[in-house]
Amino acid sequence: MNRMKLFAAILVFGSFWGLSEVLIGSSLHNMGLPSGAIMSGIFALTILVLSRMIFRQTGMQLGIGFIAGALRMFNPFIGCHLCSAIAIVAEGALFELIWYKLSFDSEYLEKPYMQASMGTITAYVLFVGGHIVTQILTPIVAGATFYVQNLIVFMPRIIAGGLLPAITGGVVLPIITLSKNLDITLKDKVYYPTTLGISLICWLLILGNFLLA
After folding, report:
1. Rounded CA gap, 117 and 70, in Å?
2. Mean of pLDDT values over 186-200
3. What mean pLDDT, rounded, does the chain reach?
4. Would the CA dihedral through 154, 25, 172, 56 be positive or negative?
5. How many CB atoms within 10 Å of residue 51?
6. 176 and 50 Cβ atoms separated by less than 8 Å
7. pLDDT of residue 184
8. What angle in degrees, to the nearest 10, is found between the helix axes of 112-141 and 163-177?
9. pTM of structure
10. Residue 94 backbone class (left: φ over 0; alpha: ψ -120 to 50; beta: rest)
């Protein structure tokens, strides 16, 4: 695929993920709902799977995670900006590892129960793995010291917290897969203005949210 087209796609998917984390994630958190589990099991999984299904490019989801993580730093409403940003990037990287050899053309993902199984596994690993990576890297990046005992203390809660995203992931992935045969090819003269326009709108909404906080 043309590199510029791929970069534009990474930009728009990353921007949309970042916007969903800032606006929807914040709202869920303020309502006392498990925002991290819902965002991982529904929004993160949907964005990562859709981008892989449409473009079939490995490495793309890591780039999407970096952009979404960077935009998440502009959210003033939820505690640790750095923690959330690291978790988002980690989810992009973990998705790359899980889906490195998978293809939507393979027999493995043809049957609904296999799609549900893969959705369950992916969402669970994204949530649990993202939180583990966050617990390790946040103090290091912040210039503090990482203590293994701190991770051990939080492990039961992290592992148990993966149940909800696992359940939602098992439902979400088969639904996403229903659209795999849709043709959404756009000509260059429409593709670039559309992707860049959507990205710009996402950035402006995030910036406005940040400035008005």
Report:
1. 31
2. 89
3. 89
4. negative
5. 24
6. yes
7. 65
8. 130
9. 0.91
10. alpha
